[in-house]
Design a protein that fits this description.
The protein is an all-alpha fold. About 70% of the residues lie in helices and about 0% in strands. Keywords: Membrane, Transmembrane, Transmembrane helix.
Length: about 60
């Protein structure tokens, strides 16, 4: 039994107005995602800064 089903998409017909709506929705969805990623990266940065700052505080030099 051959389970290799290949599909080739040759054309997608999306009206221009609908395409604009899709881009606006993606743009609005990107804002909260960017905020969440910013918070995550800030927390990671704070952890590394605290760790390296602790090393400098204990040893007296970097």
């Amino acid at each position: 039994m051959n389970t290799d089903n290949r599909v080739t998409v040759t054309d997608i017909d999306i009206p221009f107005g609908r395409l604009i709506v899709i881009f606006i929705i993606w743009g609005l969805a990107a804002v909260p995602a960017a905020i969440i990623l910013g918070i995550i990266f800030s927390l990671i940065s704070l952890l590394f800064t605290g760790f390296l700052g602790g090393i400098v505080g204990v040893t007296g030099h970097m």
